[in-house]
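Sequence only, no structure available. Ideas?
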Amino acid sequence: MFKTVSSIIGVALVVIYVAGSGLWVNTGDNWYRSLNAPSWQPPDFIFGIIWPYNFTVLGIVAVNVAQKLSAGWVISYLSIFAISVVCALVWAYQFYRPHNLSTASIALTMVAILTVPLLIIAIKASVGVGLLLMPYQLWVITAASLSWNYARLN
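Reply:
I predicted one. Tokens follow.
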């Protein structure tokens, strides 16, 4: 029962992440388009490729951890993941709503930091599945760097 409930919680966290991001992120509005973007920002289509991958892998990893590790590891993973999701949503809200770019950057940096223990726990559950999380780690580091550059340039 614990494994099933933990799997459901892990997937629910991903759904919250997707829904919250969709609620606040708006790259098509005039404000966002008027920002000075870092010269090295990836093209828009990359975002459309990487985020579905990331969200899918986050769900797969959460279920894998829930099914393969002991309760202590699962609780640790889900707790860190929940905090990470909150930080990611704080970034989305702060960046796109009140336009607090520095606060948003701090939140996204926290996501990048919190992804390290998630990656370690995921690899403990399964090296192969855990390594699927590496692009997410690299992406949130890149996104945090982009966010700090947006704060600096604007």
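The chain has one domain: 2-22+43-153.
Hope that gets you unstuck.
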